[in-house]
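Q: My labmate handed me this sequence with no annotations at all. I'd like to see what the chain might look like in three dimensions before we decide whether it's worth expressing. Could you predict it?
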Amino acid sequence: MKADELTFDEKQSLKVIKTAIASKKRAFRDDGLLLVLWGAALSISNFWNYYKNVNLTAWWMRNLMDLLQIIMGVLVLGFTAYLFFFKKKKVTTYEAASTRFVWIGVILAHNINVIITKSLLTEINFTLLQPLQMVLIGFALFVTGGIYRYYLLVASGVIMWTAAAIGAHYGIESQFLIRSIAEVICFVIPGAIMFAKQRKFETNV
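A: Here is what I predict for the chain of 205 residues:
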């Protein structure tokens, strides 16, 4: 093999490695942003559910907040779809692809649980739905943290499981509040740290 061909191969290999590293860091940053957005949306929604269950609210306020929740959900879903399907990425990393499947699987598992529960059980204990959802979310956080080797997310999964166990002993109103607080701790805080850390790294490079 000629020297210039060897140099070319080395340059190409180095370029591929750099692209893969950059894609991994970009995925880490994007997932941090998604954690913040989803955590904030879920936390606000659950806190509102808590508030309207314990306080007498006017019909117009309920309708307005319900509309705002729908708009917020559509915006977050739209931004998520943009990152997953429309944003140009040179390389899709193993970590990024794996986490997508984890969260899609959790969403499907939750909906299948709801379908089975409603179709087979004659009496539904709605106070169990929130803790069961939190258990699935905790699982997704735990596995995602393991895939990225980001142990703050692993800890977030454990915290979400703990919150689910605590919430199971309370009524639905208190469960909304517990879940709202847990979502800030388990989604927003680690997501903000992920995003800020990666942005700081990119700025310094």
